[in-house]
Amino acid sequence: MRLVTVSARGQTRVGVEAGEWIIDLNRGGEALGAPARRRIPLPKSMNEFLAGGEDAMAAAREVAGGLRGRLGDSREAARLQRDGVLWAAGEVRRLPPVPAPPKILCVGRNYAEHAREGGSEPPELPIFFGRFPHSLLAPGEPYVLPKVSPQVDFEGELVAVIGMGGREIPEARALEHVAGYTIFNDISIRDFQRRTSQWMIGKNFDRSGPLGPALVTRDEVPDPQALTLTVDVSGERMQEASTSIMIFPVAHLIAYISEALTLEPGDLIATGTPSGVGFARKPPRWLRAGDVVRVSISRLGVLETPIAAA
After folding, report:
1. H/E/C letters for each residue in 185-224?
2. In this structure, which of 53, 72, 119, 185 has its CB flanked by the most CB atoms within 10 Å?
3. What is the pLDDT of residues 138-176, one digit of tens each?
C-alpha cells in the first residue's frame, strides 16, 4: 500500500492511494462496516494508525480492497466522493506522510564517497543528528529560500518509518519493526551547519525537509538495500547511487539506535545521502529560486520540491 496523509475540508485524514483516488481509511471503514475479522476502528492520524501495528495494516488492506472494487462504477464513486470516502487529488493538500513523528533521526556520512567529498574518511560508527517536526515540508510544496544564507544544498535520502516500537532490537529482526519507507530531501543550510561542530541549526530551518509523497509499506519493499536513489536539480542529474552501498544498512541503524533509545511508531530514520551534493561541486551548486529538486527512489516514487525566493 501507498499510505498518505492529506488535508481535506479542514481536516487531516489518512488514506491509501488507489489510482487517481485517495481512499479515506477512517471513513472507508465506516462505509464498509468495521472489518469483519478485526473490528478495530481505523484512526484519523498516521501515528495512531502505525501504533495499531499489523492489525491496523491488515484492516487498511481490507478497506482498500473492498472499496477498489467500487471505483469502476462512476455513480458509486461519485457517491463515495460526496461522502468524503474518496478524495480526488485536486481536492486535497498532501502533507508529509508522517506529519508529527515522535523522533527524526538522521544519519550523516553513511555513503563513503559522500564522506570523502566533504573531506572526511568514512566513519567507523554511525553519526546521528536530530531534526524536529517543524522542519518537515509537504511533498510538492515550495521551499522558500532563507534570507540569511545563500548556501542552500540538497540531499536525497531513503527514510525508514518505524511501525513496531522497541528497545534493544536484534539486527536480524530489525526490519520487522519497519512500517514502510519514504523519500526525504535533507535540505541543508551549509554555512549555519558549519559554524560549530554541531550540525543541528543548519539542518533544522523551518520547513526545510521535504518528505513523501507516500509511505510505501514494507511488503512492497522486500530489501531496502536494493533500491536506486537519484536526485535531479532543474533537469540535471546530481546524485545517483544504490542503497546497497550504505556503510550502515537500515537494519544495523535500527539495532544501533535501539541500544540507546526506545523507538516508537512514527519515528523516522533518514539513512544518509550519497555523493554529488552541491557544496562539493566546483563551483558549488547552491539551490536558487526557480529550481526544482526531484528525488526519486525505485519502488517509492518521486518527491518534487520547487525552490522559491524569500
Report:
1. ECCEEHHHHCCCCCCCHHHCCCCCEEEEEEEEEHHHCCCC
2. 185
3. 999 999 999 999 999 999 999 999 999 999 999 999 999
12 and 131, same domain (yes or no): no
The mean per-residue pLDDT over the stretch 53-81 comes to 93
Q: Which domain holds residue 260?
A: 104-308
Spatial contact of 164 and 280, defined as CB atoms under 8 Å apart: no
If asked whether residues 48 and 74 sit together in one domain, one would say: yes
The domain boundary residue, chosen from 94, 124, 142:
94
Q: Using the structure block, give the residue that is written with the C-alpha cell 471513513.
A: 27
Note whether 112 and 54 are same-domain residues. Answer: no
Shared-domain flag, residues 194 and 300: yes
pLDDT value of position 33: 64
Nine-digit cell string for 220: 512492497
Q: What is the CATH number of the domain that holds 54?
A: 2.30.30.230
Q: Is the dihedral of CA 141, 230, 182, 264 positive or negative?
A: negative
pLDDT reported for residue 37: 46
User: Is 0.90 topped by the overall pTM?
Assistant: yes
Q: How far apart are CA 125 and CA 165, in angstroms?
A: 23
User: What are the pLDDT digits (tens) for 191-224?
Assistant: 999 999 999 999 999 999 999 999 999 999 999 9
How far apart, in whole angstroms, are the C-alpha atoms of residue 277 and residue 293?
A: 12
